[in-house]
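Before the break, one more example. Copy the sequence into your notebook; we will annotate it together after we see the structure.
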Amino acid sequence: MTAPLGVGIIGVGLMGADHAERVAGRVAGARLVAVADRDTDRADALAARFDGVRRITDPLDLVADDEVDAVIIASPGFVHEEQVLACLEHGKYVLCEKPLTMDSESSLRVVEAEHKGARRLVQVGFMRRFDPEYARMKEVLDSGHLGRTLLLHNIHRNKSVPDPSFRSEMIVRDSLVHEVDVARFLFGEEVTEITVLSPAPTSAAQQGVLDPQVALFRMEGGAMVTSEVFVNAQVGYEVRCEAVAERGTVTIGQNLAGIHTTRVAATGPSTGSAPGTWGGTVPGDYRERFARAYDLEVQAWVDASRRGERVGPTSWDGYAATAVCTAGMESLHTGEPVRVDLADRTALPG
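Here is what the structure looks like once it is written out:
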């Protein structure tokens, strides 16, 4: 493709509106041509901010529109299956924000539908894979210099969730899903078991919401992952990750310049230490913390779509993460470990 990629966006809440600004002003090789949202007033207001952008009432009409070459889906998760399947039917590349769908069964239907087609068209919006710190962390771990990775510790905190419909299960399905993909990305293997536990809830949470939550993953190769998700932490948006390997650690997300690595000294343990302090600010929300990651993600998607290729997290990655979270929601109710059962990937059609 030599002309700019015509992009349509379904869902123009915070995330969709942010993507609209990105496509219209910060991404090369793309032009925003249409938006759709069930809130037509909001869609009209957003479209009016950009020259030549149309509001299309029905999201499926946006997918079918001849001027739309590729689609970003930032709508609520319960409509993702229908919208992604429409993109597959029309042969259009799609960047679908997480979760891919609401449960493992519907996510698997998307995977199977894509595999029946002639091309792989789906990229799932796990933007942390494009974040420079996470990418560098994976490079360090994959290099083998620190030996095998044994443990991963994740912290994921939001300042607040004002939406009263955001319930305990959504913490697993809509927030913890990022930590699931991070674990799969960094280890390069599947999660086989999940346990989700909840301490006494914060008084800042809605009545009946179990917040914070702590999840424990067992990985295919025997490693373990701990993940704290706290969506009403009051302070700000904090996402940190520490990998513990045989000969050192890698830590990201501390508002430092780059990553923080410790490792065994070549001449043996240090005999002394110097005192020090550090302080910083906490980002207000995900758009600030991962601004660069989102830019890199969408640029990579646009570039690949123009080449007729797909990059980044696949529909299988979306399905696998959803399957873990489906098991996690069961564990949340029982407090017991739940095994993650995935479909046979080798048996997929196509």
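The first strand starts at residue 5 and ends at 10. The mean pLDDT is 93. Try to locate both features in your own notes.
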